[in-house]
Structure formats: structure tokens, C-alpha cells
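Record type: ASSEMBLY
Status: queued
Input:
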Amino acid sequence: MEGHLLSALVFSPLVGAVALGVVGGTDARAIGRTALAFAFVPFVLSLLVLADFDPARGDFQMLERADWIPDFGVQYLVGIDGVSLFLVVLTTLLTVLVVIFSAGDVTRRLKEYMVMMLVLETGMLGTLVALDLFLFYVFWEVMLVPMYLLIGIWGGTRRIYAAVKFALYTMAGSLLMLVAILYLGWLHREAYGSWSFDLLRLYDLSIPAGVELWLFAAFALAFAIKVPLFPLHTWLPDAHVEAPTGGSVILAGVLLKMGTYGFLRFALPLFPHAAAAAAPTMMALAVVGIVYGALVAMVQPDLKKLVAYSSVSHLGFVMLGLFAANVEAVEGAVYQMLSHGLSTGALFLAVGVIYSRRHTREIAAFGGLWKVVPLYSVFLLLAMLSSAGLPGLNGFVGEFLILIGAFGRHPMFAAPAVLGMILGAVYLTWMYQRVIFGPLRHEENRALPDLTGREIAAFAPLIVLFFWMGVYPRPLLVRIEPSVKSIVERIERVRPPASTASEMARVGRPSSARPGAER
Amino acid sequence: MILEIPAVAWLPLLPLLIVLASATVVLLLDLFLEPGDRDVLAGPAIFGLGVAAVAAAVLWGRDEQTLAASFVLDNYALFFDMLFCVAAGLTLLMSVDYLAAAGVRSGDYYSLVLFATAGMIIMAGANDLVVIFLGLEVMSVAVYVLAGIATREVRSNEAALKYFLLGAFATGFLLFGIALVYGATGTVRLDEIAVVVSRGTGEGRELLTLGIVLLLVGFGFKVAAVPFHVWTPDVYEGAPTSITALMAVGVKAAGFAAFTRVFLECFGTVAADWTALVWGLAALTMTLGNLFAIAQSNIKRMLAYSSIAHAGYLLVALVAGGEAGGAALLFYLLAYAAMNLGAFAVVIALGRAGEPNEAIERYAGLGFRKPLLALAMGVFLLSLTGVPPFVGFAGKFYVFTAAVASGHVGLAVIGVLNSAVSAYYYIWVIVMMYMREGTDEPLPFASRPYLATTIGIAVAATLLLGLFPGPFFTMAKSGILSLG
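Status: finished
Output:
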């Protein structure tokens, strides 16, 4: 089994989904417990992967390779590196938490809901470990269907509109990527005489300059929609507002990361020249997204929409870090992906808790909850502070690294991004103030029950991780760094040498300015 | 005048003869049966098709000709023979539970499906333009009758008449095209035409080009390419659903069998003359087929326009040409057969006597009232959209790969954008099934084992061919390689 750990990890949720679908029965408690058991299997397997992972290596580990469609060199090729490692663990962890939470939250068709969740997990894990572009595309599309059904079946009143919009947006983007993938395979045949979609081989393919920009554009469109990068973000608020809580958590926690992960794994290293050429544009869009997302979040009357727009803002930081393309910034981007997965997941869970009790998400419908639901208030406080990037919690580390990295080379982008960080603190604390503090203005809220045992079980691991990732990021960073270095080297190889000005800025910065190292 | 009768080699005719013999047996058996017992005819009919498919499989790898080289048995023909026999067999399997509800009382139904299949087999094996025409007519006449076989249904009658008139019209183009090609090359034998064309015909060149264009029009009608598609929605909607399935899968595949053989084998060397034209047809067919499909509220009309769009994807493969394009085309036909037969079987499963339930709105809430049926439909629709891991994606992968490799990146881009458009209407049915609450009145489903079997086979094929397309693509490739 050892040699097939990743495959076991990827397909274990699918096996669980089928088993649950066939023998699930109708008793909600039994379904919840069975689903939890099936969600635990991939979680344990991902911890085994984490344990087996060799932190010193920057290349891919645990490779599994088999021919799939030999005529076109399509392979079943999976492997893992420091970039995907923790995203995998994040995925399996969030799925467990969502299953715990949803078992008490979803009131109809629970079995189907859990089946979808597990199928989705296979899609996400497969996307993260696939190293053959064809295989990657297959998993990428497989992710789409269960998410679409989760929104469309278990969502709110405008769920159908949101689900169809989500499906069409993502599909339109990814289909052009398919053509680009096919083109890459063909370029490989032109160069070496045989088709191949093997990422490790395609990394070294030389691509004609005129073509490279087009290919990059096709990949970038697919990923930018998923991130979502401003101005392609319009599907996101709809999808989030209508999605059930569990769906929102997975969507924001993991699915959005597939976009940024795609940039880091595919678009940047495969097309370094084009990426370098596009970097100013992408960084500008990222910064616009950071500020715009924060401003729009600030004026939202709906809690879930507020959190959704905060994702647009936070993912902008990740994009900024990726396109700054130096080790600190990219490392920060990876860290921020993980951190955002946890904190936004927590915020969506928190919104889900009060929605399930009051059936409204209007900020104005609350206020003064502090006395009624103290446990909940503490949890929301931590989730809010983590999202706002308070030092000592997880959100700070990534944003800090990104800004350090970006300032070195692109101060004109990094400076407005800092503004976004401040705005983030503003809208989140303001939201918290209006929901939790002040007088209890609505009588309905007086009898609001506090967190249930089930909810505490779902929240507790998140809180532990907030603190861990905030004060002791080292175990994560040492595993992330070698892989980030090898990707950045790949990108750097083709970059024009840095100009003197930015070189000076680099020198002016202490080289050990990594929070992990300081603490 | 003394007619020299050529020696006949019988072996290359084996699949055809088996199907014809079964058709005759079924026709005769029908005479001895009471009207209520005619369902049993499906048994010998499916058996005959199965034997023919097995015979084709056993003959795999042979390359022979007969009847003065006007009919050949190569892997290309055998690939199609197997496809036709399996598709017709599944059509009959889904018909058993359906005919009474559809108001079809005639036992001729079974023998006519077999005769149509025989016509398809002739088209796939024909090495002669006149034999292609012969096969086309054998197939078409049978299908004209089948389209109108629900004699008490007005729209079935209308479908038959419309199909007959437009079919005859198209045949005229085809015949005229054959005449012009004969005029330009002096022969109707495909291999000889190929030789003459590759040598260059000199002053006959214009004649040849005109002939090619007319053949394109004729075949365009048969495979329902835009702008020769206008008959499709009405005929598909009006014909009994099982026959619609046969038309969408079998007749279209037969059209492409002849189309591809003629264009790749005979006119491959002058591809520059017609590629641009087919390129345009492909782009137009995909785009308009998909756009019109969006507006449909009847599932059969929607699937009719979807079949037009898929003809467009197949034309992309033809434009790509060569070994990769041809093989992609053959594989795509196989993929299309699996998922489309399944979709039509689900449409049948939802109907009942006097109430066909073809409005897409009737699918509301199906996902939780009939979960397995809805799941199967979901699989077929996602596969038609081209979502992995189903066979529709594998088919599109091969088609667009061939297009990219032959330098037609633009067409591949149009193709994938069309897939995105098509997602809208396919997914709409899924929206209905899973996201809209239906009426609480349950659809009374009788147990229909044959229909369930058909759907089960189609789901299995859609999934397995999608996960492991390699061996079947290899077969498709050796089919294409057997062309001259």
C-alpha cells in the first residue's frame, strides 16, 4: 500500500461516497456518523502523507506513474511537493469539519449531501496531486459537478441562478485551458516526436514566444475565474450567498485555492516569459481586487456577502505574492492560501451558525449577542481577528511575507495592498461590533442558544490551528520553502535581471525577515 | 451483349448476410404471430444483430473485397458494422417496453430496423459511389417507414413525410454529385477515383470540385449539418423515440461512414479544395446547433439540436483529417452512440401511453423521485457536455487534439466554446431534475426490465469508455489505417 498512498488518499473519499450512497439508509444520525467515518479515512491518510513527506526535498515526492491513454502519452501521474502538501491536509481537514457541522445543519437529503461532499473531496485532492495535465483537467472538471449540485440543491432562494452561473463561468474558463493543454501536448510531439502531458517534461519544453502568451492567457483565464481575480469575481458573491454553509466553507476554503494553486503549479512555471510580461497587469488587478473587495465588503448588509467579498480581497494578496515571484512572496502566498482556508472557513461556519438559528444573515438583525451567546462571540472574535491578520494569529504570517516580498521589487503595488490590510481590519471589526456588541435590539435574539457540542467540535480544531500557524509557522514553512524555491528558480531563470533600484530595495531589507525565524 | 457475372466471394458479405437473413426470418415469423405477441420478435432480431456483431469481431483484421471490388471488408467497415449492430440491438432492446405505449402495433418494426441496419452496413463497406447510394436508399426507405410507423400519431405521420421529402431532395444532390465525379474521373470505384484524383485531373478539375461540393451537400443532409439540418428537429420530435435514437446514432454514423470514406480516401489529396468549406460547415453546425438547442422546451427537440451540434464536432474531426482526425471521428461516433442511446432510453422511460412527458419541465424533481433514472440521465447529459470522466470528454479530447495537431487551433477554440454553450442546456435538464421540486403526483412507472437493461448498458459504456478509451481508440485507428 505504501507505494500507492496518494492514490489511496485521492480515491478513498470516492469509495466512501459510493458506499454511503448504496448502504446509507435513511436515519440522519447514522448517515452523519457513517459520513464522518468516511471523511476521516482520507484525513488520516493525509496525515500519513505528511509524516512520510521528506521536508528537505523541493521536487515531487511519492510519484505514481501509469500509462492511461498511450496513443497520446496521457499518464496517471500523481505526486506531491511542499506546495500541495498542506493544501491536501487542509482539504481533508475542512471536509471532516464540514461533515461534522453539516450533519446537524442540513435538514433534507443529508445522504446525498454527504455523497456530494465526498465526491468533491476526491476531485479536490486529485487536482492537487495530479502532475499530468490531462489528469489534472479531469479532476479539475470533476470538482465542478458536485459543487454545482451542492449549491443548486441545498442552496438558498436564488440557488439555481447562482449554481448555473457558477457552472458556466468556471466551465467557460476551463475549456480554453483544455485547448492550451492539447496544444502543449502537441508542442511536445513536435519537439520530441511523441505526445506528452507530463508536467515534469513540459516544464522543460521551449515554447515559441508568440504562442506562449496565448497559452498563458488560456491558463490564466481558467485560474483567474476560479481565484477569483478582479474583474472576474462576479460569480463568487452569488455562489457564496446561495450555497449551503458546508458548500461555502469548501468553496472558499479549498476551491478558490485551486485557482491560485493553478497559477503556481502550472501557469507561472510553464510560461515564465509570458508570466513575467503579464506580471504588472496581474499585480495591478490583484491590488484592485484587494482594495475593491475590502471596500465592497465594508458596505455589505449581509454577513455572508461580507465574508465572500473579503475572500476577493484576501485572494488578491495571494495573487500579488505569486506574481511578485520571489521566494518570500511566493512562500507567503502559499501560507496565505492555507491561512485563508482556515479563517474564511471559520467565518462561514460562524455565519452558518446564526443563520441556522435565525434564518437571516442581515447584520442589522443582530447586535448585543455578547451576553446571549458568549462562546459563539469568542469564536467569531477569533475567526474575525485571524481573517483580519492580527499578529499572533495565522492570517498575519502570510500577508506579512507577501508584503515583504512584494515591497522588494514592486513597492508601487505593495503600498496600496497595505491599505487593503487596514481596510480588512476595519470592515471585520465593524461587522463584529454591530453583531456582537451594543444593546440587544431584537427580542428574538434573547433566547438564542449558544454553540452546541457538535459546533464546538467543528470549531475547536480551527482555533488550535489559528494559534499554531500564528506563533509557530516554522514546521510548515520548512516544508513549503524548498518547493517554492525550485519553482521560483524556474521562473527566475528567464527573468531579466532586477533593476538597480529594486536591487537596492532588496539589499535594504534584512534577509532573515521571516516571522518564523524571528520567533 | 453478354453480361459477365463476377465471381462472388461470400466471406466479406458475412455481417450483411447475417443481418439480412435475420430480417427475413423476423419478417416471416411475424406472419404467424398474434398482434399481442409480436414483442417476442425482438428476440431473434437482437440475436441476429448480436451474431453479426460477433462475426464482425471475428473477421477483424481482414482486408478483402468482393462483387467486382465494389464492396470491401476492411477494419473500417468492420468497426462500423459492430457499431451499427450494437446500436440497432440497443434500439430494439429499448423498444420492447415502449412500442405499445407509442401506439406501434406493427410487427414490421423489427424487420425494418434490421433492414435499415443492413443498409448502414452496405454504406460502410461500399467501395463504389453507386453502392453507397444503394446502401443509403436501403437504409433510408426503411427509416422513412419507421419514422411514420406510429400510424395513429399525427406528428409521426408528419415526421415520415417530411423526412421522405427532404431525404429524396438530398438524394438528388448526392446522385448529381456522383454523376459529376464520374464525369471528372471516369469511374465510380472509390480506390480508382483516389488514383485519378491524386494524379490530377487537369481540365476535369472544376467538374470534380463541383461534384465534391454536391456530395458534401448530400452527405450534409444525412448527417444533419447546418444549413442542411432543418428537417431534423421536426422529424426527431415526431418519430417514435426509439427510432429517433436510431436516426441520431445509426443513421448519422452511417452517413459519416460513407462521408469519411469518400472524402478521406478519394479526395484526401485535394483536401485543400474542400477543407475550408467543411471548416465553415463545422463551425456553423456546432454554433447554430447549440444556440438553437438552448431555446428548446421539448427534450426530443433539444436532443435533436444537440445531435446537430455533435455533427459539428464530428466535422471538426473530418477537417483535421489524416489518421488522428479519422480515428477521432470514429471514436466520437462510438462515444456519441453510447451516451445518446442512453439519453433517448431515459426519455422513453419517462413516458407512458398517451402521455409522452417530453416537456423538459416534466423532469422537475425527478432526481429524488426516481434517483437511479435521474442519475443515469445526469451521466448522459454530463457526458454530452464533455465533462470528464465520461466518454464524451474522451471523444472531445481526441477530436480537439486532432484539430490542434493539424493546425486548426481556431476551430478547436470554436469547438470548446461551443461546449461551454452546450453546458447551458444540458445542465438545465439537471437543474430541473435536481433543483426544482416536481409535482407530488408520482409518475406511475411499471417495471420495465428491458428499458432498465438498455440504460444500464449505456451507463456502463459511457463510464468505461470514458475511463479506458485507449483500446477502442486503437481499434478506431486501425479502422482508419485500413482505408487506402
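Annotation: The radius of gyration of chain A is 22 Å.
Annotation: The mean pLDDT of chain A is 85.
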